[in-house]
User: Which sequence fits this backbone?
């Protein structure tokens, strides 16, 4: 793997943190001493209560103003410690050493156990649980994913770092029994023997492992699955990158059932069979595939032609054996546009939902006849004979709207991409640079069903966020800007239509919060970030809430289906019609001597920034593009906040974008947002 990545120009240093060297630990007597890193990934923060939300306090390594990060001065205001177990809050991209808490977490098999929770790893007088918001040691990672009662969102908590004694909770941390002698008495915790074994384990044993189905389905809920296998496909050995499509027709009874009732996807998992697998993309198709092509793996001819062009070859001097494309091949790229999910290393399960929501599968207004899986394979050394039988499993349930007592999932989770740049003839990353970036701006447009909730027509509640890039991508950001003076959605749209240029438009907006900032990101750890579970801690009170339509749907669910687990009433980050989302993908090309294109190969790059939201009233939203801009940071110019201004100063390569999106009728419309020219974003819908 290292050799392949070296040929791809990938920086090798971050790979050190992916090597499992659990036996090589250097322990010191000091509680704040550092140790060698062990199998560390940013997504491990999801295994710890509030692991993503420990403030990057200026006293912590990597959080002061002199720290070299793309965040610059925003660290102390908006930043969170990206590498909670590392000796530097910027994580493994900056140091391969662990702090005292990181060492204890590794010793606990990278699991939140009661023993780890009750430890005081940094010796500052507060247990790890007290510092992270779980003083009674009741948090469970599985329940945090699905929203079960055992993992109701932690209350607002003055979190501090459990690995550095210099960072302790503030005076606002007030236990109910402050004079008690033990931590459990101090916080009035229930007796230890009242805990279910699945809530938290004792000692350093790993928390009870559940199947993806058991984690995501409600007790007694209808369980269905769609299994798609790559069918022992032979990975072509004359192409270094290959996209293989497998399209499977759905049985007639499934199509009818999902049209007449409501089918909701609750989880998607993969069983990876080949180390050459780069990613899966799963989409739905409104038309069926021919019987002789059903479930047959075929090389994607459109991607193949791009690969051959990049390698300077034509169609006649390559062979792909029985995987060869045909002129009459089912065109999945044109016909299958229902995005269901994507898997990449670290994103497993790649679809996940609460127990009161799910992703819609089919329906009267979105018929589904087939599902296609597009698999991307790497074959840098063009080795022949590699066979893959990887599997994608879609777990779904069926809800009959006529039987409200069975409707355990009144909320629908919906995909909301901010930018998905996969192929671009104009964007090229320059070589030998450590601060290349792609910056995009887009404006949120919400298509809601008001009913008795006017806010539902202009507001969505964010659930998760996800980024995607390739080998030289090393940081990702997504931030919300809102029209100043709390303008209405119509006023925000009018401001976009009337602005003379991007700077004038953005000067009328203010940064209200990052959705997610990831100054340390890498390809091998592309887990989806849960931004709803702990929104009350992560975001200001004025930015979070619950729509009345959502609350009413959950109230009804509680009345008609009072079985455990009860739905989780949570305050989510609210995204409003007219808000502008600024996404940034950062890249380090310092090890490459040739430009890097934006394209389909692994050695190319991509820039994805996307989120999901929940709705009880079938709301829809999209983000209308305003600007795409590629540039290079230099010297002290490392502030992501106002990158778009550089485009108007002539710094960078791209200053406009042509955006394509669908209106309420499903028709494609376009809007051109040139820097320095007025374009009507408001009238585009």
Assistant:
């Amino acid at each position: 793997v290292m050799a392949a990545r070296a040929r791809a120009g990938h920086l090798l240093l971050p790979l050190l943190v992916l090597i499992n060297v659990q036996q090589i630990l250097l322990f010191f007597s000091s509680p704040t001493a550092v140790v060698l890193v062990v199998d560390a990934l940013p997504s491990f923060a999801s295994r710890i209560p509030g692991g993503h939300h420990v403030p990057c306090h200026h006293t912590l390594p990597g959080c002061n103003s002199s720290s070299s990060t793309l965040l610059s001065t925003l660290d102390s205001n908006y930043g969170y410690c990206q590498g909670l177990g590392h000796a530097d809050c910027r994580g493994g991209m900056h140091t391969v050493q662990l702090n005292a808490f990181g060492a204890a977490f590794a010793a606990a098999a990278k699991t939140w156990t009661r023993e780890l929770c009750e430890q005081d790893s940094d010796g500052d007088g507060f247990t790890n649980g007290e510092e992270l918001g779980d003083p009674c040691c009741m948090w469970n990672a599985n329940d945090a994913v699905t929203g079960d009662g055992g993992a109701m969102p932690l209350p607002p908590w003055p979190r501090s770092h459990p690995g550095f004694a210099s960072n302790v909770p503030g005076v606002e941390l007030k236990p109910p029994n402050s004079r008690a002698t033990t931590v459990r008495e101090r916080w009035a915790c229930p007796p230890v023997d009242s805990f279910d074994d699945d809530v938290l384990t004792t000692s350093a044993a790993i928390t009870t492992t559940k199947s993806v189905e058991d984690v995501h389905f409600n007790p007694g809920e209808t369980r269905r699955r769609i299994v798609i296998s790559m069918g022992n496909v032979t990975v072509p050995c004359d192409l270094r990158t290959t996209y293989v499509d497998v399209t499977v027709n759905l049985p007639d009874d499934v199509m009818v059932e999902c049209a007449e009732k409501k089918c909701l996807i609750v989880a998607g998992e993969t069983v990876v069979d080949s180390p050459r697998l780069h990613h899966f993309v799963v989409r739905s198709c409104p038309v069926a595939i021919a019987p002789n092509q059903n479930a047959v793996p075929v090389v994607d001819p459109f991607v193949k032609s791009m690969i051959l062009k990049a390698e300077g070859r034509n169609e006649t001097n390559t062979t792909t054996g029985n995987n060869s494309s045909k002129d009459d091949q089912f065109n999945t790229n044109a016909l299958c546009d229902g995005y269901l999910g994507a898997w990449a290393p670290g994103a497993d399960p790649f679809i996940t939902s609460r127990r009161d929501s799910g992703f819609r599968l089919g329906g009267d207004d979105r018929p589904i006849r087939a599902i296609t899986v597009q698999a991307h394979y790497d074959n840098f050394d063009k080795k022949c004979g590699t066979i893959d039988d990887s599997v994608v499993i879609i777990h779904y349930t069926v809800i009959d709207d006529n039987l409200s007592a069975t409707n355990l999932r009144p909320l629908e989770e919906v995909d909301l991409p901010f930018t998905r740049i996969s192929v671009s003839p104009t964007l090229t990353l320059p070589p030998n640079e450590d601060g290349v970036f792609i910056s995009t701006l887009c404006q949120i447009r919400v298509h809601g069903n008001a009913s008795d909730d006017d806010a539902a027509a202009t507001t969505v509640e964010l659930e998760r966020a996800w980024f995607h890039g390739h080998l030289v991508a090393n940081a990702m950001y997504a931030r919300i800007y809102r029209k100043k003076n709390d303008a209405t959605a119509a006023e925000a749209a009018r401001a976009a239509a009337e602005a003379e240029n991007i700077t004038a438009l953005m000067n009328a907006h203010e940064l209200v919060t990052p959705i997610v900032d990831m100054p340390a990101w890498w390809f091998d750890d592309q887990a989806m970030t849960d931004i709803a579970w702990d929104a009350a801690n992560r975001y200001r009170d004025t930015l979070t809430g619950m729509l009345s339509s959502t609350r009413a749907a959950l109230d009804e669910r509680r009345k008609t289906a009072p079985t455990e687990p009860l739905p989780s009433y949570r305050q989510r980050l609210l995204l409003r019609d007219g808000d502008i989302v600024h996404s940034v993908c950062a890249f380090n090309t310092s090890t490459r001597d040739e430009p890097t294109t934006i394209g389909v190969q692994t050695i190319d790059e991509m820039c994805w920034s996307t989120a999901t939201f929940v709705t009880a009233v079938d709301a829809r939203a999209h983000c209308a593009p305003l600007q795409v801009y590629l540039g290079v940071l230099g010297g002290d110019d490392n502030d992501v906040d106002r990158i778009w201004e550089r485009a108007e100063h002539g710094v960078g390569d791209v200053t406009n974008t042509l955006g394509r999106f669908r209106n309420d009728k499903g028709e494609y419309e376009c809007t051109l947002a040139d820097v320095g020219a007025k374009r009507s974003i408001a009238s585009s819908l």
